[in-house]
Amino acid sequence: MEKQNKIHLKRTFVKSVNFEYKKDFTKDELDTSVNIKKELIFKEGIDNEYIILFDGSFENEIFDLKIEFLAIFGTSEKIDADFKKSTFVKSSSPAIAFPYLRSFISTLTLNAGLPPFILPAYNFTKENGEIDE
């Protein structure tokens, strides 16, 4: 029986964030343009860790927000080519990390004195790196 590579989310953090407040708001619901891309990063020389990078931009009549958010995963076994192509890495890992990004953005907008902007749920099964609603 083949040994399964166990993974764990080591940490998440904001690499960069740019928030621009444009004008006072008059309504609680906003039509927000959402653009999020995900990228898998495997650093050379590190064989038991990988990174999910979410690169997002959100725009509406009240604010513009750009963010780079990283989630670092550790593995119990060395990462090989099969692991890099696995459904777990491509779909499940982003699904595990996404709620942390979602929480950060809603907290940021709420603490900025705005209605909290809550990202919708996403389907992470697309191959091209774009995140589908």
UniProtKB/TrEMBL annotation:
Query: Is GTP-binding there in the keyword field?
Result: no
UniProt-listed Pfam families = SecB
Q: Where are the transmembrane segments?
A: none
Q: Which domain of life is it from?
A: Bacteria
* UniProt keyword annotation of Transport present: yes
Which InterPro entries does this one have? SecB (IPR003708), SecB-like_sf (IPR035958)
Q: Which UniProt keywords apply?
A: Protein transport, Translocation, Transport
Family stated for the protein in its record: Belongs to the SecB family.
**Protein's UniProt name:** Protein-export chaperone SecB
